[in-house]
UniProtKB/TrEMBL annotation:
SUPFAM superfamilies cross-referenced by the UniProt entry: DHH phosphoesterases
Domain DHHA1 residue range list: 250-329
Domain DDH: 18-169
The protein's name in its UniProt record: Bifunctional oligoribonuclease/PAP phosphatase NrnA
Annotated GO MF terms: nucleic acid binding
Length: 334
């Protein structure tokens, strides 16, 4: 966000405003942590805020402060649309193209209110009047921290705000293992811990509250894991039948893709998950080193994301999607 935009936004926020804050569809820890953290902060400035998620978020994020107040667009489209139209300002966090909100896109496109984008993905769209977009950051939560500092309101960050932002920084950094985890990232996290963030408890809340069915589903995904050693590639699959067998609920497949990168010699992995109700195969890509899965997802699977973490989709069958993936990988030699 340039200085001119920042000053204009500062002037706009001098008066109490009604503000809606939107994450992307299928929100993860960074999306929910950043929206809720920003919501708590703006309330301390005297604004009225409401987080509206395009659809349900995973149960393992339900403990986040303020999560119980989040409105779900897919549960009541008319109410949420009317609410959006009554707001003074719209923040969009952790995405940079309105189609990332799914069915909510049309409602957002019709709004006349100014929008603020805070995001770290490549190729930002042009829908927002105020744009803080920078791919150098490892998480949107870290960007929200800097946004608060740019507003010269860092003193307002309390344990509640810090807990939300810590969660997103930790999850989007792969628990501080990904390349964009910097010394600044750790200094911010240290500040949050000093504010009382329960840093030893949050990983348990996020990763250790597994159901028996989720562990069984994870086991099936590991059984399905295929390795292409000469291509330094692995991938796994989960069919709709397998999801049904283990009573899949949102969030159950979170993190499974990362296991493919733990194999010696593998630096590119993927998971293909069949969702027959939506008519698509959802795909997650991960890499280590310089192989750009963002470009791979954009080029071949109608997706995108970051250099080492991206997503895509296919409308073909699971079997044909896998065949196409293997052929592409053989051709490009990642």
């Amino acid at each position: 966000m340039n200085e001119k935009e920042l000053q204009e936004l500062l002037v706009f926020l001098e008066q109490p405003r009604k503000i809606a804050i939107i994450p992307h569809r299928n929100p993860d820890g960074d999306a929910m942590g950043s929206t809720l953290g920003l919501s708590h902060f703006l309330r301390k400035l005297g604004h009225t805020t409401q987080v509206i998620s395009p659809n349900e978020f995973p149960d393992f994020l339900a403990w986040l402060p303020g999560a119980e107040e989040v409105m779900i667009y897919e549960k009541d489209r008319q109410k949420c649309t009317a609410f959006l139209q009554s707001q003074d300002l719209i923040f969009t966090l952790d995405f940079n193209a309105l189609h990332r909100t799914g069915e909510m896109e049309q409602a957002l496109q019709t709004l006349k209110q100014p929008m603020v984008m805070i995001d770290h993905h490549e190729l930002p769209g042009n829908y927002a009047q105020f744009v803080f977009s920078d791919t150098a950051y490892g998480s949107t939560c870290e960007m929200v921290y800097h946004f608060i500092q740019d507003l010269q309101q860092g003193a307002l960050i309390n344990k509640t705000i810090a807990t939300c932002l810590y969660t997103g920084i930790m999850t989007d950094s792969g628990q501080f293992r990904f390349p964009k985890t910097t010394g600044t990232t750790h200094r911010i996290v240290a500040e949050f811990i000093d504010l009382g963030v329960p840093n030893t408890e949050i990983p348990t809340l996020l990763f250790d509250n597994n159901s028996y069915d989720r562990l069984q589903l994870m086991g099936r995904a590991l059984q399905n894991l295929k390795v292409l050693p000469e291509l330094h590639t692995s991938y796994t699959t989960l069919s709709q039948e397998e999801l049904n067998q283990f009573h899949y609920v949102k969030g159950d497949t979170e993190g499974i893709v990362n296991y493919g990168l733990t194999i010696k010699g593998i630096h590119f992995t993927a998971i293909f998950i069949e969702h027959k109700d939506e008519g698509i195969i959802k795909i997650s890509f991960r890499s280590q080193g310089q192989f750009d899965v963002n470009q791979f997802a954009r080029t071949y699977f109608n997706g995108g994301g970051h250099i080492n973490a991206a997503g895509g989709k296919s409308t073909d069958t699971l079997e044909n999607t896998i065949l196409r993936f293997e052929q592409i990988v053989k051709e490009i030699q990642p």
